[in-house]
Amino acid sequence: MGVCASLGIVALALAGHLWTAAWLIAGSSILALLWYVRSLRKRIGELQNYSRALEQELAATRADAAVAHRAKSAFLANMSHELRTPLNTIIGYSELLQEDIRHDALSPEQAADSLSRIHDAAHQLLALVNDLLDLARLEAGEVTLNRAVWLLSQLVDEWRALAEPLMAQNQNRLTVHLEADPALRVTVDRAKLRQIALNLLSNAAKFTVQGQITLNVAARDCADGSMVLSLSISDTGIGMTVEQLNRLFTPFTQFDEPLTRRYNGSGIGLAIAHRLCMLMGGAIAVTSQIGKGSIFLVTIPLLIDDPARVERSEWPKN
User: Fold this and answer.
1) What would the pLDDT profile of 110-156 be if each residue is shown by its tens digit?
2) 316 part of a folded domain
3) How many Å apart are CA 158 and CA 277, to the nearest integer?
4) Does residue 208 lie within any of the structural domains?
5) Which of 40, 84, 188, 225 has its CA 20 to 30 A from that of 145?
6) Distance (Å, whole) CA 67 – CA 78
7) The pTM is what?
8) How sure is the predictor about 175, in pLDDT bands with cuts at 50, 70 and 90?
9) Element holding 16 (H helix, E strand)
10) What's the CA gap between 101 and 308, in Å, rounded?
11) At how many degrees (to 10) do helices 2-102 and 108-139 cross?
12) In sequence order, which residues have a C-beta less than 8 Å from that of residue 282 and are 6 or more positions away?
């Protein structure tokens, strides 16, 4: 009887331990399962957030692609107009010349006028084609710098002489200030620097009528001992909105079709000036107010020439 009682007690104790172990195992399993479920839910939430982010990114990409497509279509439509205008002039006046010659009704004055119009239209077309080719080469990274030593005052005089006919088209006044030593010689790419200056001056002249255009040129010292060439082109033209300023140098999207039709411009010159400036290690900043005009500020790092190289500097005849 005593042995049986002892065995019963032992059995009960073992059963209690087994139940405790079972409950511990079950509890641990439940906790592990709960942790796994919580981790799984967290992971599902992360995947859902990632999926939503991808959907938003895809929607934004599609929207950007649609905007780019519309901008490119507007660009191509505007370019078609810009190309057709001089072509129509060339073809139209050529046909008039042929007709007058056929009927022997052509005076020297009429011939000179028609030929002058054909000549001007051909140059306009050539300039547009050159701009398109320049922009394509810049976008492809195929443009290199050809630096040489130039007298800064001669560069500025060249820009002034080339810009004067542009100013006459809309009866604008051009004022040029050189805030540097006239004898200062710098090492720059003359052709590309001239293209930047003339493109910005042409843009100012195009959107200004009977107004004032001012070019300020300066060579400023930097804290590290280097020098920066500063070009400031200000005008009293129509000005630009904040939205137009934000899109000014963006490929294809800088063109406002009604505006370019009205003022006979494509906007390619600004894109070229911006990319040439970046190629030379510089930058362009713009401020503008509607109805009051715009200011373009160009800054380009300068290489100051040493006296030994000055003697080899020559100003070309062309």
Assistant:
1) 888 888 888 888 887 888 888 888 888 888 888 899 999 999 999 99
2) no
3) 19
4) yes
5) 225
6) 16
7) 0.66
8) very high
9) helix 2-102
10) 62
11) 160
12) 229, 298, 299, 300, 301
